[in-house]
Every structure is written in structure tokens, then in C-alpha cells.
Amino acid sequence: MASFARPSLLRQTLATTRSPLLRQNVGVSQVVAFHASARKQILPPLPQSIEGTMNDPVPVPSPHPMEGSYHWTFERAVCVGLIPLSIAPFAAGSLNPVMDAILCSLLVAHSHIGFQAAIIDYFRPQRVPKFYSLCNWLLRAFTLTTAVGLYEFETNDVGVTEALRRIWNA
Amino acid sequence: MQSMMRASPAAVALGQTMQKRPVTSNAEDPAQILVKQRLNRPVSPHLTIYRPQIGWIGSSLHRISGVALSGSLYLWATAYLASPALGWHLESASMVAAMGALPLAAKVFLKATLALPFTYHSFNGLRHLMWDLGRGLSNNVIIKSGWTVVGLSVTSALALAFL
């Protein structure tokens, strides 16, 4: 077969095997509809504003000793501390009051840091500054009531791990 | 054309005979155009554009399970603190009695509902600590460890539920 015959032959083969949708003359409107995926707006965009001029860089937050590297290390230290304290009750049945109190303190710290991370991710201070600070104050209040509530439970009741053991065996 | 023909070469070279076309430019503030354009952006979280993969689904479940567990702890501890004022009974004895009064299926279901977020968050937390040490960060290992965590947490949660 002569080589010049191949391209046209190939084209014919392609034309017959192409899907009927592709063979149609696809208009511009259809192409646009194909490319633009449906908008699923979980959070509608808030009114936008530009700080300074259009070409200003994003401001870099000033460093703070409670944020960044120390915060990261503290977070990990709490997580690592939680590992033996969450394995021990399965081995020993329940914890003694001191270990139980340490577990509760670490759980409160871990929860507080975790909630803070979630709040700053979903309610960014640049986007919703008032709601962000409201959430943070709510979190502080709830962390306080949780800590006091757990202290009450530890002093007046059987302790968290022992209570869970009893509920599990009920 | 006539004027071009008549103009001297020097005048043409200096652009003195250039055609001028007065056009009214768009007087809109460029900053406002940008503001309007920003409203057309897809808003995060735009989850439907991603293919479901163990990496991001597992990561989302880590946060969801963590918030669920901590949220339960916060609500229960706060309710326990407020219980004398509200007349509720959240002390261990009455919780044990309430759990004991449930039929077996409800007990297993409740235990599984509590145990699965706990086991998943714990095992996936170990995975996160491994990443913090800079290990297991290749795509292959992330997929394998992700499914390992799913398997381990479901198995251990079922074991705890039937305990």
C-alpha cells in the first residue's frame, strides 16, 4: 500500500468508529456546557474587597512564640503522650486516679488544639473575622466547662476509664 | 491614502500621519473588575472536582472522627457539670444502668458507633506521627498505610463492639 493512501484510509476508519456524539457538529455552547462543571457552593463567596492595591502581596503574619514551631512541638508531645495512656486501660482494665487525670488533661488539650485548627481552617479570620473570634471564645468557654466537668467527674465519680469500662460491660 | 501619498517620507517615518481612532476606554475601576471576578471563582471546599482517593478521604475522616469524639467529650463533660442545676443524671451509675437496660443489638450498635471513630482516629493518628518524623511519605506507602488503617480500625471497632 502506498504510504500516501494511509492517512485518508485512517481518517475513514476513524470516522466510522467514532461515537455518534462526537460525529455531531458540536456547537460552542455545548463545549462550554461540557467544560463548566456544576457549581456546588457549600459556602457562597462573601463580598470581596482588596486590601491596598491589586498588586500588593499577601501579608505575612508576624511570628508569635505561641504559634509555629513551639505550637507544633507541643501538639505532637500531647499526641505522643496520649498513645500509652490510651493503650494502658485496655491492658490494665482502668487507670488509677492520677493517670486518669493526666489522660483527661491531655484529652482536653488535644481537643482544644484540634478544634482551634478546625476553626481557623473553616472560618478564616481574613474572611469572617467576627465569627472567627466568636467561635474561638465559644471554644475557650467550652474547654473551660469541659475541664471543670471532668475535674468534678474525677473527684466525685469513678473516673473516665473506669466509667467507660463499666458502661462497656453493662 | 491621498494624504499618505502627499506626506514626505520623513513625516511618515516619524508617525506624523498615523491614523488615530478615538475610543472611549472602559472607565470602570480595575480593582472593582478584580472584585467581581473573584466572586466567579469556585469556592472551597469544592469537593466534587476531586476523584475519591484514600488520601484525602482518609484525611477528612480523621478530622471528622476527631471532631465527633472531642465534641462528644465536650458535650458530655459540660452537661455533667450542669447536671445538678438541670436535674440530669449523668453520673456513672445511671449511665451504666441506662446502658444495661438497652437490648443487645442497641448495645452493639452504640458501642460500634463510639468505637469506630476512636479506633480510626487513634490508628490514623499514629500514621500522622509517622509522617511528622518524615517517614512513609511516598504515594505508594500512603495508599497502603491508609487502607491498613481502615482495615485495622474496622476490625478493632467490631471486636470492641462485641466485647
Automatic annotation (TrEMBL), chain A:
Q: How does it sit in the membrane?
A: Multi-pass membrane protein
Q: Name one GO cellular component term.
A: membrane protein complex
Q: What is its main location?
A: mitochondrion
- In which residues is a ubiquinone bound? 122
**UniProt: heme b binding residues:** 110
Annotated compartments = Mitochondrion inner membrane
| A Pfam family of this chain | CybS
UniProt keyword list: Iron, Membrane, Metal-binding, Mitochondrion, Mitochondrion inner membrane, Transit peptide, Transmembrane, Transmembrane helix, Transport, Ubiquinone
Lineage top rank: taxon: Eukaryota
Q: What is the name attached to this protein's record?
A: Succinate dehydrogenase [ubiquinone] cytochrome b small subunit
Biological classification of the source: Eukaryota, Fungi, Dikarya, Ascomycota, Pezizomycotina
TrEMBL record, chain B:
The compartments listed are: Mitochondrion inner membrane
Q: Which PANTHER family match?
A: SUCCINATE DEHYDROGENASE CYTOCHROME B560 SUBUNIT, SUCCINATE DEHYDROGENASE CYTOCHROME B560 SUBUNIT, MITOCHONDRIAL
A biological process term (GO) from this entry: tricarboxylic acid cycle
Q: What is its main location?
A: mitochondrion
Q: Organism, per UniProt?
A: Penicillium subrubescens
CDD domains, sorted: SQR_TypeC_SdhC
Q: Which InterPro entries match?
A: SQR/QFR_C/D, Succ_DH_cyt_bsu_CS, Succ_DH_cytb556, SuccDH_FuR_B_TM-su
Q: Any transmembrane segments, and where? A: 73-90, 96-120, 141-162
Pfam families from the UniProt entry: Sdh_cyt
Lineage, top-rank taxon, reads Eukaryota
What's the protein name? Succinate dehydrogenase cytochrome B subunit, mitochondrial
Give the way it sits in the membrane: Multi-pass membrane protein
Record family assignment: Belongs to the cytochrome b560 family.
Transferase listed as a keyword: no
Which keywords, in A-to-Z order, does the entry hold?
Heme, Iron, Membrane, Metal-binding, Mitochondrion, Mitochondrion inner membrane, Transit peptide, Transmembrane, Transmembrane helix
The entry lists its GO molecular-function terms as:
electron transfer activity; metal ion binding
Question: Which residues does UniProt assign to the signal peptide?
Answer: none
Report whether Ion transport shows up as a keyword of the record.
Answer: no
Which GO terms of the cellular component aspect does the record hold? mitochondrial inner membrane
